[in-house]
Amino acid sequence: MGKSLELPTLVDSEGSPAPRSPLGSLGLLDGPGLLIAVKKEYFKVINYKELHFNDCGDRVAQLLHVELTSPLSQCQNNEILIVNTHLLFPHDSSLCLVRLHQVYKILQYVESYQNECQLKPLPIILCGDWNGSKRGHVYMFLRSQGFVSSYDTAHHYTDADAHKWISHRNHLGNTCAVDFIWLLNPDKCRKLLKSSWSEAVFGMFKYLLQRTSLTESAAFDFLKDENEDCIAYSSFSKALQKLNLIGHCYGLSDEETKDLWFQADIDGNGVIDYKEFLYRIWNQTGSDYRKR
């Protein structure tokens, strides 16, 4: 009872502050909501921000900038960025892209916040209900950005150990491991965020092609027009629409689609040949890194 807590505003599904109960805790009328409770003995709150995804799930994220009240070292930065979120549940495969977008928005927001505040590279903690397993695109996206699962680190698990733990039973009654606490230390060598995003989308692209039992050569044929040797932008767009990645309000935007095309068209000659298809889409061997 002697522990004091600082409670930032809880965001409800309409984007409004949720009401406090008489006991001082934060209640929620309906819809998804988030809460970060901070022990004042350990952390001083420097700033608090809210991110609204503005998508089909009314999902949100919280960003908390804190400083340790008892510095671990006088020689190092003792500030931390903490993000809490609850991603959309993938009721069908079309929502997987929405979830990937939500994570992309979080990482863009964190990057923008650090730049605007002119912060030195800080440790970043991402926590919450990610509604996706270690086999999913969100997991691989975050791993490509250098984030590690704190649970895996503590138990010496690898990315392949998806079967060794569960976090809870979902509303369908299935046991699953979807609640993560991700950590990124500032000494990590990070891939450019845009590169990781493109690779994640191409990975989803490949998964959807493989799900229809297409081999790499058949997938290449699926992407190009009949009697053509290479993939043109028009046939590339048609394939994305057939796979439900574009053509609806929560799909890839025109700008994102064109950006994917420019990355796949490595030599910039206006078409994607078989080697470019293998390199950028099927095998994904790109590697744009930056020091943090």
Give the CATH superfamily of the largest domain: Endonuclease/exonuclease/phosphatase
Structural class: alpha+beta
Report the span from N to C terminus.
Answer: 41 Å
So how many helices?
8
Overall pLDDT confidence? 81
Number of strands: 12
Fraction of residues in β-strands:
15-25%
CATH class placement of the largest domain: Alpha Beta
Provide the domain count. Answer: 2
Order the strands across the largest sheet as they lie in space.
3-4-5-6-10-7
Helix content: 25-40%
Please summarize the sheet with the most strands: 6 strands, mixed
Order of helices and strands: EEEEEHEHEHEEEEHHHHHE
CATH architecture of the largest domain: 4-Layer Sandwich
Give the tags.
single chain; 292 residues; alpha+beta; Deoxyribonuclease I, Chain A; Recoverin, domain 1; 2 domains; 6-stranded mixed β-sheet; two-stranded antiparallel sheet; 19% strand; elongated; disordered N terminus
Verbal overview:
The structure is a single chain. With 292 residues, the protein is of the alpha+beta class. The protein folds into two domains: 5-187, Deoxyribonuclease I, Chain A; 196-291, Recoverin, domain 1, CATH 1.10.238.10. Helix content is 32%, strand content 19%. It has eight helices and twelve strands. It has helices at 96-116, 137-144, 150-155, 193-211, 216-223, 233-242, 254-264, 274-282; strands spanning 5-6, 38-39, 43-52, 60-68, 79-86, 124-129, 148-149, 168-169, 175-176, 179-184, 189-191, 289-291. Strand 8 and strand 9 form a beta hairpin. The longest helix has 21 residues, at 96-116. The chain is elongated. The two termini are 41 Å apart.
